[in-house]
Amino acid sequence: MTFNSNNIKNKIEKLREEIRYHNYRYYVLDDPSISDTEYDQLMKELMEWEKKYPQYLTSASPTQRVGIEPVPEFTTVQHITPMLSLANAFSSEELRAFDQRIKKLIPQQKLDYVIELKIDGLAVALVYENGILVRGATRGDGITGEEITSNIKTIKTIPLKLFGDDLPSHLEIYGEVYMKKSDFKKLNEDRIKKEEYLFANPRNAAAGSVRQLDPQITAQRHLDTFIYQATFPEGPKFKNHIEVLNYLKKIGFKVNPHIQLGQDIEEAISYCQEWIEKREDLDYEIDGMVIKVNSLRLREELGSTTRSPRWAIAYKFPAQQVTTKIRDIIVQVGRTGALTPVAMLDPVKISGSVVQRATLHNEDEIRRKDIRIGDTVLVQKAGEVIPEVVKVIKEKRTGKEKEFVMPSKCPVCGAKVSRLEGEVVSRCNSLTCLAQLKERIRHFASRNAMDIEGLGPAIIDQLVENGLIKNVSDLYFLKRDDLISLERMAEKSADNLMNAIEKSKNRSLANLIYGLGIRYVGVHTSEVITRYFPTLDQLRKINLEELIEINEIGPKIAESVILFFKEKENLDIMERLRSVDLNFGQKEEKKRKKKRVQIFTGKQFVLTGLLKDFTRTQVTEIIGELGGRVTGSVSKKTDYVVVGEDPGSKYDKAQKLGITIINEEEFKKIITSE
Ligand code: IVH
């Protein structure tokens, strides 16, 4: 019996080894030695064995890459050794200075460098115990990161189990998770079809995918890795970095192939320069190069500062610059109402792509750089960012150049443009501005706002472009037939959307306030506001002073809220929303009233110390509404003592008498609990 079961166990493990090897050849070496069908066959066989003998299933089996349940949230973990960052150099001069610094610290030592590509992705730390992947974490702040093991396991180039017999019992690996340019393109194309939001660049896409709570989604994103460092508390001893990288390759990791050994800093510099051009040919993005001291002994001697090692430096690629002429300056109205001046350029080629526009950011920036229409300018493109004007070539001026004036009315809707005190951006605050409308609707329908499922960007585009929606309130006047008339809208989806819109009428007032997209009013602020002004009617009547009095609301937020409720168009929209019976806080009010009588009935409270979020009068009122009573001094009859900062003698007395003491947070929890 024992012999038999061991046999089966061995057979399963052998099958796994075989699959691991083919995995490695396919994903890491990009050099498969069997066909896909043969590989699938092996996987199928393994799955069948594991199903039949679940007692032999292990988490490091190749079948266990996906299939793990989504997690509610990530937990934070402490890195075993802090994940340091790198100091940056932007020129050959700075690289020579780096070399000089090292030579001063360790004179008369033979020094060679390893030069690597700087992969533009997301740093991760992997922990292996006895060759098995036990933990994957993001860099976080370098000391603690987020635990993302289940997501890491879905990345095919990360081994779940390492090759070799004499593996160190403990191994910590650093590397970069990234998304290939080609996979990024496919992902975004797919997201357009699915009406989902697009990622700005491969790095954001990789970061977003790694931080998915559902590993099934991460698995679909085709992430990849390059490993560039390892720490071994014990186990094999190496002399230099190149040996470490070779060892990592041997035990199953994917190490970047373009690694170069340089005898001195000049060799390193010329290798860096080679890649300024060659980077365009790679199927992944790099944002520079990393130069590292090869000898591990010298690294040890050099040590690290608190932020970065002294033995390595990142060389950042220079931004490419060219000159061209500004034909015109137009004003774009962004999705949040920001007016951005944009330079229309004579087309020029920068880093392989033709550029015709450059952002001028804002009015002040134009004045600071003294940019005029007709100027010849130096334009640059750094990495993936939008091109910008570096400076004006004043010698080229003819005297015919024209100064730019920011319009006082929104170029799209004609509403008055405002620029808040201390801000550089001019804005259009009208809820009816078409330029902002699509984004406003998307925001209104988003999960933390009205949560209208099925109202994706493509539908919003059509609704706006066909004139069916002119502001968010029109959503509630849509008819089923309006929806069915849209392209690619099936009857069932139209019904679902109608239901979702209807359902959203019951969302809380905080959700609605957030959904209105008032500048500076995020999820948290809308909750704070509704705590003090629980109905929209109360909120509409308030003034600046009252708002600023709330601890968490600064003058900027307050001014923005007031401005929003001053705009006549916005008030009209509120009335339309009221007419379709949207929840303006009355639902919560009813619930509160019902609940309030219950929870503090007959209870006596004493207050001591300073509270952060409430005045004494407010707390007294709240307690009163909930059926309780506030008294001045602590006695045996006191039920609760609410303590703030710097409490007085009442606190000591309460402790002596054994009376329940609650702090502000606890108090808040009690009064807001369902
Ligand atoms: S070595 C002790 N090598 O760049 C620091 N980093 O700006 C070890 N990176 O956080 C870093 N490619 O995420 C190193 N070949 C490479 C790299 C690389 C990309 C990233 C890494 C690091 C950041 C520093």
Automatic annotation (TrEMBL):
<feature type="active site" description="N6-AMP-lysine intermediate">
    <location>
        <position position="118"/>
    </location>
</feature>
<keyword id="KW-0436">Ligase</keyword>
<feature type="binding site">
    <location>
        <position position="139"/>
    </location>
    <ligand>
        <name>NAD(+)</name>
    </ligand>
</feature>
<keyword id="KW-0227">DNA damage</keyword>
<dbReference type="InterPro" id="IPR001679">
    <property type="entry name" value="DNA_ligase"/>
</dbReference>
<dbReference type="InterPro" id="IPR010994">
    <property type="entry name" value="RuvA_2-like"/>
</dbReference>
<comment type="similarity">
    <text>Belongs to the NAD-dependent DNA ligase family. LigA subfamily.</text>
</comment>
<dbReference type="Pfam" id="PF03120">
    <property type="entry name" value="OB_DNA_ligase"/>
</dbReference>
<feature type="binding site">
    <location>
        <position position="316"/>
    </location>
    <ligand>
        <name>NAD(+)</name>
    </ligand>
</feature>
<feature type="binding site">
    <location>
        <begin position="36"/>
        <end position="40"/>
    </location>
    <ligand>
        <name>NAD(+)</name>
    </ligand>
</feature>
<feature type="binding site">
    <location>
        <position position="176"/>
    </location>
    <ligand>
        <name>NAD(+)</name>
    </ligand>
</feature>
<dbReference type="InterPro" id="IPR018239">
    <property type="entry name" value="DNA_ligase_AS"/>
</dbReference>
<feature type="binding site">
    <location>
        <position position="433"/>
    </location>
    <ligand>
        <name>Zn(2+)</name>
    </ligand>
</feature>
<dbReference type="Pfam" id="PF03119">
    <property type="entry name" value="DNA_ligase_ZBD"/>
</dbReference>
<dbReference type="InterPro" id="IPR033136">
    <property type="entry name" value="DNA_ligase_CS"/>
</dbReference>
<feature type="binding site">
    <location>
        <position position="116"/>
    </location>
    <ligand>
        <name>NAD(+)</name>
    </ligand>
</feature>
<dbReference type="InterPro" id="IPR003583">
    <property type="entry name" value="Hlx-hairpin-Hlx_DNA-bd_motif"/>
</dbReference>
<dbReference type="InterPro" id="IPR001357">
    <property type="entry name" value="BRCT_dom"/>
</dbReference>
<dbReference type="InterPro" id="IPR012340">
    <property type="entry name" value="NA-bd_OB-fold"/>
</dbReference>
<dbReference type="GO" id="GO:0046872">
    <property type="term" value="F:metal ion binding"/>
</dbReference>
<keyword id="KW-0862">Zinc</keyword>
<dbReference type="Pfam" id="PF14520">
    <property type="entry name" value="HHH_5"/>
</dbReference>
<protein>
    <recommendedName>
        <fullName>DNA ligase</fullName>
        <ecNumber>6.5.1.2</ecNumber>
    </recommendedName>
</protein>
<dbReference type="Pfam" id="PF00533">
    <property type="entry name" value="BRCT"/>
</dbReference>
<dbReference type="InterPro" id="IPR013839">
    <property type="entry name" value="DNAligase_adenylation"/>
</dbReference>
<comment type="function">
    <text>DNA ligase that catalyzes the formation of phosphodiester linkages between 5'-phosphoryl and 3'-hydroxyl groups in double-stranded DNA using NAD as a coenzyme and as the energy source for the reaction. It is essential for DNA replication and repair of damaged DNA.</text>
</comment>
<keyword id="KW-0234">DNA repair</keyword>
<dbReference type="Pfam" id="PF22745">
    <property type="entry name" value="Nlig-Ia"/>
</dbReference>
<dbReference type="Pfam" id="PF12826">
    <property type="entry name" value="HHH_2"/>
</dbReference>
<feature type="domain" description="BRCT">
    <location>
        <begin position="595"/>
        <end position="674"/>
    </location>
</feature>
<dbReference type="GO" id="GO:0005829">
    <property type="term" value="C:cytosol"/>
</dbReference>
<dbReference type="GO" id="GO:0003911">
    <property type="term" value="F:DNA ligase (NAD+) activity"/>
</dbReference>
<dbReference type="InterPro" id="IPR013840">
    <property type="entry name" value="DNAligase_N"/>
</dbReference>
<dbReference type="InterPro" id="IPR041663">
    <property type="entry name" value="DisA/LigA_HHH"/>
</dbReference>
<feature type="binding site">
    <location>
        <begin position="85"/>
        <end position="86"/>
    </location>
    <ligand>
        <name>NAD(+)</name>
    </ligand>
</feature>
<keyword id="KW-0235">DNA replication</keyword>
<dbReference type="GO" id="GO:0006260">
    <property type="term" value="P:DNA replication"/>
</dbReference>
<keyword id="KW-0479">Metal-binding</keyword>
<dbReference type="InterPro" id="IPR036420">
    <property type="entry name" value="BRCT_dom_sf"/>
</dbReference>
<keyword id="KW-0520">NAD</keyword>
<dbReference type="Pfam" id="PF01653">
    <property type="entry name" value="DNA_ligase_aden"/>
</dbReference>
<feature type="binding site">
    <location>
        <position position="428"/>
    </location>
    <ligand>
        <name>Zn(2+)</name>
    </ligand>
</feature>
